[in-house]
Amino acid sequence: MAVKSKLEKTYKVKYQDGYYIFKLNSLLDERNVTKNSVKNKKEIDFNSMQRLIKGDLTRLDLDIIAKLCNELDCKIEDIVEYRNEKWFNKKEDECLS
Question: Strand, coil or helix: what is 47?
């Protein structure tokens, strides 16, 4: 199940010993670009884009990732990244210090 961060407009999805962080929604907002404009320009299925935004998918479609990276002039990790639990625990410890 995806957990949405309201402040950052990202979704965090638990997977094995860590989390996938889906940041496409935040990136679009940051670039002041609408989902529809990217979807139409790059011919990406709306449902596929929504699943990538919310992390509601079973596999990453590299074709879609490439289209988004080219359109938004970004790297894969600007759209989705994987962090292990140790990284999150370290960040929590830093915040408490």
Answer: helix
